[in-house]
Amino acid sequence: MVNLQTLDVFNSIHSFQEDELRNKTVVVIDVLRASSTIITALMNGAKAIIPVADMGEASKIAQNVDSENYLLCGEKDGIKIDGYDLGNSPFEYSNELVGGKTLIFNTTNGTKAIKKSIGSANIYIAAFLNVSAIIDELKNQSQDIVLVCAGWKGRLAFEDLLLAGNITHVLSDGKLPDDARDGTKVAFGLYDKYGEDILASIHQSNHASRLKKLIGDDDINYCCQVDTTEILPRLKEGMITLTNG
Ligand code: 3SL
Description:
Layout: E1 8-10, E2 25-29, H1 34-43, E3 48-52, H2 55-63, E4 70-76, E5 79-80, H3 95-98, E6 102-106, H4 110-116, E7 122-126, H5 131-139, E8 145-149, H6 158-171, H7 182-194, H8 198-203, H9 206-215, H10 218-223, E9 233-236, E10 239-242
Parallel strand pairs: 1-8, 2-7, 2-8, 3-6, 4-6
Antiparallel strand pairs: 4-5, 7-9, 9-10
């Protein structure tokens, strides 16, 4: 049974301190695009994903592993990093390319949010693609829950907060207690206003506008799909793997 009084939503990686997550179950949300890409990579047979905070950490790991079994992946400001095997478009993560491989994954906000959550009790990765599976898992958690939105360079990102609102709506059956946390109320209210048309409202967001100029609409349309999979990516001992089939 979820405690709705303690459920909290943080709207960017700069909006909390690591020790606020201790003993909590954390869900990291980066709809555009890190969470959606992680989910897709695992759906398509990637063995594991190692999230890193920056390029230095990524190259340190890459130098010490066998390049046949590992791929260096990610973006800076939305663009694939020079010398990396893959960028951050979910369409790049086909079974042919990622099947059986471990991915060293470095993104502008998403992997930083995951790294900052490392001291918590459980860490799951959520996008609209797996939202119902995440909600079902949260219903069975005994710890307090925090939804960590990756945002964009310390600012909130509409699409991340919208997903947090979707999760809070379902967990509360559409009725938040009056003493719910401020962050939860804001996310809940956002979903109330914009949740009816997720695709159209995300297309109007700052991050979608930025991505459209770089790469067009396809990734945004893909990441706005709801419940295409039931997989539950979870971080354990520095690696994201599947907790279920
Ligand atoms: O910030 C991130 O982690 C990325 O998902 C951003 S982008 O969609 O690749 O621009």
